[in-house]
Amino acid sequence: MSVRRPWTERGVPWEGPALRRTREILCAGARERTLEVGVGDGANLRYYPPQVRLTAIDPDSAALAAARKRAEELGLVARFAEGDARSLDFSDESFETVVCTLALSAIDGQEEALREMYRVLVPGGRLLAAERIGHTRFPARLWERRRENPRRAPREVAAEAGFRVGHHDRLFFGTVERMVAHRP
Ligand SMILES: C[S@@+](CC[C@H](N)C(=O)[O-])C[C@H]1O[C@@H](n2cnc3c(N)ncnc32)[C@H](O)[C@@H]1O
């Protein structure tokens, strides 16, 4: 039986040229040992530079199977594992890059997830992320204020976890934040 999951867990309905370009730009910054957190069905895989050694995790086994298939089709060698961003099964300082796109908002516990990403990055390692944020523009921001748990900007949560946030900007009418941060 197929279970209908909310769209926030399935991907984005508006995946189009702008989002594809965002993926391309972020993934081009990946270096050496790279961990993708919440890989889903692998929409980023085609954009990684060939020299990247990729490990990708997601708690959803069906999504991981789709990502594995996509990697095979692309001829990409990568390691896939079921895992939870809030408790990463990797040693401290074991990756040069962490990539996370549109997954933080699906994780119940962004703060823990960002602390874990910090832990597994080497000093100087980079976090490359794009994430949905709360609506900041009128009139949608009025609706946002009524949410029980208003969504936080990932760059604020990343800074609390110890990251130095470098470039950040907003896309899609201010609803997605793109961020490059590093572990000092
Ligand atoms: C909207 S999809 C995004 C997938 C992919 N990153 C992309 O950019 O298309 C959100 C993903 O986050 C994953 N996710 C949810 N909770 C998670 C957790 N605790 N740890 C890691 N990934 C999680 C979901 O299984 C899902 O694959």
Describe it for me?
The chain has 184 residues and is of the alpha/beta class. The chain has a single domain (15-182), classed as Vaccinia Virus protein VP39 (Rossmann fold, 3-Layer(aba) Sandwich). It has helices at 7-10, 17-28, 61-74, 110-120, 140-145, 154-160; strands at residues 33-37, 53-58, 78-82, 95-101, 121-132, 164-171, 176-182. Helix 4 (110-120) packs across helix 6. 36% of the residues are buried.
Which key features would you list for this structure?
29% helix; 6 helices; globular; 7 strands; binds S-adenosylmethionine; Rossmann fold; seven-stranded mixed β-sheet; alpha/beta; 184 residues; single chain; disordered N terminus
Shape: globular
- The tally of strands reads 7
How many structural domains?
1
Q: List the helices and strands in order.
A: HHEEHEEHEHHEE
Mean pLDDT, nearest integer? 87
Report the uncertain regions.
1-11
SSE arrangement:
Elements: H1 7-10, H2 17-28, E1 33-37, E2 53-58, H3 61-74, E3 78-82, E4 95-101, H4 110-120, E5 121-132, H5 140-145, H6 154-160, E6 164-171, E7 176-182
Parallel strand pairs: 1-2, 1-4, 2-3, 4-5
Antiparallel strand pairs: 5-7, 6-7
Helix pairs in contact: 4-6
Q: In a nutshell, what does this entry contain?
A:
The protein is of the alpha/beta class and 184 residues long. The protein is 29% helix and 27% strand. A 7-stranded mixed sheet has the order 3-2-1-4-5-7-6, with helices on both faces.
